[in-house]
Records
---
Amino acid sequence: KAGVTQTPRYLIKTRGQQVTLSCSPISGHRSVSWYQQTPGQGLQFLFEYFSETQRNKGNFPGRFSGRQFSNSRSEMNVSTLELGDSALYLCASSRASFAGGYNEQFFGPGTRLTVL
Amino acid sequence: SQQGEEDPQALSIQEGENATMNCSYKTSINNLQWYRQNSGRGLVHLILIRSNEREKHSGRLRVTLDTSKKSSSLLITASRAADTASYFCATPHSGGGADGLTFGKGTHLIIQP
């Protein structure tokens, strides 16, 4: 079974631009979560999508948005990029079919975003 | 904000030795998970322990959970060079539903050959 894939793997942008990252979950997984990882803040939860609906959102400004398509693929968009948005953006998929958070999350390799 | 906090932040041991990492968290949880990350790549799920479990094993991994102390430990026995990685504990974001995970800052483990 193919794992979670993320594209692109590396991206360089300048301040003020916007960026779109893509994530394809494992086949059959309907939940996709996004995380930002930086040396200073560590891993932080951005948001989760399930069946095309955003179910939960972390403490990030409105510049960070996402969506999920009917095939469970997800995109994350960051508008008006700031230097502090430089990070590794990780996507994770899970079955998310039961409560309690007992479902393990399968992570993709990440997209390394550098903002100049 | 960080829910889990790992200790130590970094650990260097000789190959073959055991490595122990600890995690403390703040709020009530129904499960706690451990993940491994190699050199800035994606995370790999290692083990999940539920709040009604005290200990769980998976191969060379042993995880304990003490809900009264709000702490967990991960023991890797007979370490190998390939175990060099960062290890994170994670708890469900909102304490229950199938939502995102809140991660600690991790323990960076180095296995010396």
---
Amino acid sequence: EVQLVESGGGLVQPGGSLRLSCAASGFTFSSYAMHWVRQAPGKGLEYVSAISSNGGSTYYANSVKGRFTISRDNSKNTLYLQMGSLRAEDMAVYYCARDSGSFTGALAFDYWGQGTLVTVSS
Amino acid sequence: DIQLTQSPSFLSASVGDRVTITCRASQGISSYLAWYQQKPGKAPKLLIYAASTLQSGVPSRFSGSGSGTEFTLTISSLQPEDFATYYCQQLNSYPPRFGPGTKVDIK
């Protein structure tokens, strides 16, 4: 059974940093591109970042470029999102999601984690 | 970047109703469109990919159609468990944005 379990969310002050993790199981993690998607309270889904299966290619939404870094450790079956210079508008539930295809040819995000809440407040 | 719009943004329907949601892209995306269902407090669930292919395990009352810039998600006979918010997503190019969502509520 495919499982994605996020962790690392919590309360952080504006300007602070946080690292999210997404532990994957039930599939060959190193064969799939992965994504982060976030959802602010009461709002829709916002695309955040992507990483290819071997970590060699990444993509960032303009809203997080230069502040967030996506990475992965295929030996640990884990996806990461290092978030810095956090702002109030970064407050959201962050989901990791598996790419059903490839980094440049995705058809959908076929499995999602349960999400982890990031709260940015002083 | 490709923008997506959805209509309606909210619809009220009864169990057994046929429901259609439309997603429009700001430029052609071939068939690179997916539909998701999200219930409160839960992660999105993939329903349809490649515009019309039903994800494994999804009931056949869900169907998708369209290509280019206009797409539809149809629920042939709305069931109690279908009351949720539905999002389309384009995967033709980065960023793979989502539409703003359509909330389906109980009449």
